Amino acid sequence: MTGLLTSFVQARDIVRRFGDRVVLDHLDLDIARSEFVVLLGPSGCGKSTLLRLLAGLDRPDAGEIRVPADRAIVFQAARLLPWEKAWRNVTIGLKGPDARQRALAALAEVGLVDRADAWPKTLSGGEAQRVALARALVADPSLVLLDEPFAALDAITRLRMHALVRDLRARHNAAMLLVTHDVDEAIALGDRILVMQAGRIGHEFTVALPAEERTHGAERDELRVRLLDALGVANLAH
Predict the structure, then answer these.
(1) What does each C-alpha distance from 134 to 37, 91, 108, 121, 122 come to in angstroms?
(2) Looking at the DSSP assignment, which residues form a beta bridge with residue 147?
(3) Residue 5 pLDDT > 70
(4) What does each C-alpha distance from 114 to 87, 91, 157, 160 come to in angstroms?
(5) Terminal CA-to-CA distance of the chain, rounded, Å?
(6) How does pLDDT run across 188-234, given as a tens digit for each residue?
(7) What average pLDDT does the segment 37-52 reach?
(8) Neighbours of 97 (CB within 10 A)
């Protein structure tokens, strides 16, 4: 794990139970400032539970969590208010007379300034998620939590969103934690990939590949096999 002195986000000895079921079992997690960490694992393994704890949407039964106050979250569903236009959805939580200008600037970053006055029902799935990204980034948070935000998108739109997130991350220099069950997505985006296992971080992989080698190449393929093996599905992938 990342060293304590450089940790920007810390979770220590985290336990979360739902009835008799232990979902997180004395889990430890560290994220460095500006680091992109991917939490990988099958559905039901506790990934989203951990993210909700980090977001402050839930409390652990035991353990300690330290996260920056200026954090934002992007969910699997865009969760836009249908009675507000796109730019108004971006301003949720913002204060001050420049809220519209900041919203338009954030929409420009995600390539949607021309859809600022669109109603959510007229947006495609990818456009709605870009509005959600703009809403998360408009306040320039130091930590962004992404809970499978691209799972419902088609393959081409998902690839475009990956490129957008890489670009936004570089511009904002924020730490990011992405929850996903998609191995290819994890490789495409992460600096580190953490594989959940039995309510803890079971395996850790550092990704040193440049952007152009994250979708193909021998090193990428080798890492993919190692990740599938850590997930226990390597033999099923052939």
Answers:
(1) 20, 9, 9, 17, 17
(2) 179
(3) no
(4) 10, 16, 19, 18
(5) 31
(6) 999 999 999 889 999 999 999 888 888 888 999 999 999 999 998 86
(7) 91
(8) 6
For residue 233, what pLDDT is reported?
A: 80
Q: Which residue has the tokens 């900041």?
A: 102
**Whether 196 and 81 share a structural domain:** no
Question: Number of folded domains in the chain?
Answer: 2
Domain interval for residue 209: 34-70+142-238
What is the b/e burial string over 80-91, where b = at least 16 CB atoms within 10 angstroms of the residue's CB? Answer: beeeebbbbbbb
The DSSP result for 86-124, as a single string, is: HHHHHTTT--STTHHHHHHHHHHHTT-GGGTT--GGGS-
Residues 6 or more apart whose CB falls under 8 angstroms from that of 126 comprise 153, 157, 160, 161
CA–CA dist 8, 99 (Å, integer): 28
Same domain as 184, residue 102: no
Containing H/E element for 132? helix 125-137
Domain shared by 166 and 63, yes or no = yes
Q: What percent of the chain has pLDDT over 70?
A: 95
Give 237's pLDDT tier (boundaries 50, 70, 90): low
The structure tokens listed for 163 are: 């490129």
